[in-house]
């Protein structure tokens, strides 16, 4: 616009000379568009018609442009910058249409049509001409948009394009075929991650494409995952790297958790020499300003050879004449040791396998626990280890009935290490010590309940009680009078025979003193005469006779009973 004003004076001078001879009403150039806005690299058609009075013959028709400084107006088709691109589509009658292809910013000028006739002053320039503005396209877009929001991209030109063409959009050079529109805007509703990219715009049937503009979509971390390197089995001492991967924009900060405990930050969590206490469940957290997300947990299961192998005693037993001990080998390993070997100290070849081992000899044993990662041997233990008394019991010799005067031996048995001290109790009373308790001439007062106590420094144990029941013949037989009464014409006296014996005497005999044959049997005897009587008590072990007692039977009148017993003690 400014340009055309500045250019006006020289042209006016030309026209003034021109207008003198002719009427301007007959002369003219008519442009379809006074302003043309064209896209860079496109072809522009400037439609144009011209008129002149009859009686003239057209000589030259051509187009020229600003700046016009020379007397003779230059023909654009002779300008090397235009000659290849310019095509006169009109004629020498009235059509002055022109086509200019491959326009660039430099072509933004005012263009005029010029014609001359066979009459010297009969020439004309169509002023003002056609103002051509060549524009490029620029995508206007925010740099970032948050996922889920909507965004509007504008394809900007510096002037309103004269040809109302259809806009085409490209993302990463791929046309968005569904996004063709007469409007120069692209609306992305509820933006997704996939919408990020380099956007450019163009016009349909035009080769020019705008510079691309990056649209980035921000979003919270997604698909957070952990990978372990190396994959496969992890053995103590390995170097292990955990890598956290996630998609996010802007890039996420990552942190690491073992169980619920924070253990480090950064995309990579390295453990240079892994140990068994690193076993556990790990996860990473990926976070940016839009949110955070945890990965699934991954498990580190660190394998290691057996450590802290040890032997313990789990059971005592008896083996033929001796004792046995069951040993068990324990160790801490991953995977658990399933292979064990047993050795006598100072011997090379193993004496057994399996987690447990029954030792029959007093020896020093050790075990070796194996898994696929190695082995470890335990300290040696002496099988002859100490334990409290196990089971105590009493046996009686001879077995069977015990009769007063016999020799009787009680034997206490018990297992223990070190050997026990044994002591003997009758009822609750200590009666002796030692494994054997002998009674050389047993008497009735030895009858009773006996038990032995087995004890060492680790404990003590009582046997069950056994009963000694000592048999003996009747002793201290005696006669007593328990009743007097009447018998027919006279009085009578009832005598009873008592004795101490085991088993109790059930067989009694009664005698008159100085007579050999008995006068009665049974525990009681009725005396009818005044006499001296004695009794004899029997059991299967013998008999004893009592002292004689004097029985006086009164044969008084009228039932008055008087009797006198004289016991002659001896
Ligand atoms: C110009 O050409 C026209 C048509 O051929 C003719 O009539 C006229 O005389 C010419 N004018 C001059 C000055 O030669
Ligand atoms: C002028 O010529 C062009 C190209 O041949 C044509 O498209 C146009 O219709 C013509 N204009 C007139 C008014 O005859
Ligand atoms: C793991 O064990 C090593 C020695 O084996 C020790 O130095 C370290 O402190 C332990 N770490 C944990 C977390 O217990
Ligand atoms: C147990 O370990 C020993 C020593 O490494 C090996 O010779 C033996 O084959 C292993 N036995 C089993 C059943 O794995
Ligand atoms: C058992 O009887 C004998 C005699 O028979 C006696 O010497 C001893 O003291 C008695 N013992 C007890 C424990 O009564
Ligand atoms: C009682 O003892 C006497 C003398 O030993 C014997 O002759 C008699 O058979 C015994 N009687 C009974 C019933 O045991």
What report would you give on this structure?
By secondary structure, the protein is mainly β. The protein folds into 6 domains: 5-134, Immunoglobulins (Immunoglobulin-like); 136-211, Immunoglobulins (Immunoglobulin-like), CATH 2.60.40; 219-300, Immunoglobulin-like; 304-382, Sandwich (Immunoglobulin-like), CATH 2.60.40; 387-468, Immunoglobulins (Immunoglobulin-like); 473-567, Sandwich (Immunoglobulin-like). 4% of the residues lie in helices and 55% in strands. It has 2 helices and 52 strands. Strands 12, 14, 15, 17, 18, 20 and 23 form a 7-stranded mixed beta sheet that branches. A hairpin with a 2-residue loop joins strand 38 and strand 39. The longest helix has 20 residues, at 2-21. The chain is rod-shaped, with a radius of gyration of 68 Å. The N and C termini lie far apart (176 Å). One 2-acetamido-2-deoxy-beta-D-glucopyranose is lined by residues 49, 89-90, 95, 97.
What's the short story on this structure?
The protein is mostly beta strands and 570 residues long. It contains 2 helices and 52 strands.
Keywords:
Immunoglobulin-like; 6 domains; seven-stranded mixed beta sheet; six-stranded antiparallel beta sheet; 52 strands; binds 2-acetamido-2-deoxy-beta-D-glucopyranose; Ig_sub2; B-cell receptor CD22; signal; Ig_CD22; immunoglobulin domain
Q: Largest sheet, if any?
A: 7 strands, mixed
Name the shape in a single word: rod-shaped
* Structural class by helix and strand composition: mainly beta
Helical content band: under 10%
CATH C-level class of the largest domain: Mainly Beta
Mean pLDDT: 87
Q: What is the strand content?
A: over 45%
Strand segment tally:
52
How many distinct domains?
6
* End-to-end gap: 176 Å
Rounded to the nearest angstrom, the radius of gyration is 68 Å
- The CATH architecture name of the largest domain reads Sandwich
Stretches where pLDDT falls below 50 for ≥5 residues? 1-22, 557-570
Small-molecule binders here are: 2-acetamido-2-deoxy-beta-D-glucopyranose
């Amino acid at each position: 616009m400014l340009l055309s004003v500045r250019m006006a004076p020289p042209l006016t001078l030309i026209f003034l000379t021109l207008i003198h001879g002719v009427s301007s009403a007959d002369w003219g150039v008519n442009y379809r568009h006074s302003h043309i806005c064209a896209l860079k690299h496109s072809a522009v058609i400037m439609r144009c018609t011209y008129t002149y009075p009859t009686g003239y013959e057209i000589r030259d028709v051509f187009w020229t442009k600003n700046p016009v400084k020379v007397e003779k107006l230059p023909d654009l088709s002779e300008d090397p910058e235009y000659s290849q691109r310019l095509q006169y589509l009109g004629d020498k009658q009235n059509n002055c249409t022109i086509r200019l292809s491959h326009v660039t910013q430099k072509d933004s000028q005012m263009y005029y049509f010029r014609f001359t006739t066979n009459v010297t002053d009969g020439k004309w320039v169509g002023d003002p001409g056609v103002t051509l503005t060549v524009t490029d396209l620029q995508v206007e877009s925010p740099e970032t948009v948050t996922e889920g929001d909507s965004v509007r991209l504008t394809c900007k030109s510096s002037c309103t394009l004269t040809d109302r063409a259809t806009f085409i959009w490209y993302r990463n050079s791929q046309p968005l075929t569904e996004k063709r529109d007469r409007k120069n805007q692209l609306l992305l509703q509820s933006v997704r991650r996939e919408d990020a990219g380099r956007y450019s715009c163009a016009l349909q049937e035009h080769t020019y494409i705008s510079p691309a503009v990056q649209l980035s979509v921000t979003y919270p971390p997604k698909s957070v995952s952990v990978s372990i390197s190396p994959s496969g089995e992890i053995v103590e001492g390995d170097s292990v790297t955990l890598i956290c991967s996630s998609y996010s924009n802007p890039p996420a900060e990552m942190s690491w958790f073992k169980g619920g405990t924070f253990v480090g930050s950064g995309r990579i969590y390295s453990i240079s020499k892994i140990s068994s206490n690193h076993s556990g469940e790990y996860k990473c957290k990926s976070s940016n300003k839009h949110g955070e997300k945890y990965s699934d947990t991954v498990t580190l299961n660190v394998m290691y050879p057996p450590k802290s192998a040890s032997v313990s005693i789990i059971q005592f037993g008896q083996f033929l004449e001796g004792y046995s001990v069951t040993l068990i080998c324990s160790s801490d390993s991953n995977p658990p040791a399933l292979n064990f070997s047993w050795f006598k100290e100072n011997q090379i070849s193993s004496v057994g396998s399996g987690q447990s081992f029954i030792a029959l000899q007093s020896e020093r044993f050790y075990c070796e626990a194996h898994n696929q990662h190695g082995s470890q041997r335990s300290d040696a233990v002496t099988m002859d280890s100490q334990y409290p008394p196990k089971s105590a019991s009493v046996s009686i010799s001879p077995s069977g009935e015990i009769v007063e005067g016999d020799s009787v031996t009680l034997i206490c048995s018990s297992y223990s290490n070190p050997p026990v001290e044994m002591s003997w109790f009758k009822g609750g009373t200590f009666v002796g010590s030692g494994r054997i308790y002998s009674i050389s001439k047993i008497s009735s007062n030895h009858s009773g309940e006996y038990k032995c106590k087995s004890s060492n420094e680790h404990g003590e144990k009582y046997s069950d009680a056994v009963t000694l029941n000592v048999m003996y013949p009747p002793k201290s037989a005696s006669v007593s009078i328990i009743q007097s009464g009447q018998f027919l014409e006279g009085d009578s006296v009832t005598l009873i025979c008592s004795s101490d014996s085991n088993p109790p005497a059930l067989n009694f005999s009664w005698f008159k003193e100085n007579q050999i044959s008995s006068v009665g049997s049974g525990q009681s005897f009725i005396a009818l005469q005044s006499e001296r009587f004695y009794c004899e008590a029997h059991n299967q072990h013998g008999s004893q006779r009592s002292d004689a007692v004097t029985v006086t039977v009164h044969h008084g009148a009228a039932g008055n009973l008087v009797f006198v017993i004289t016991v002659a003690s001896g």
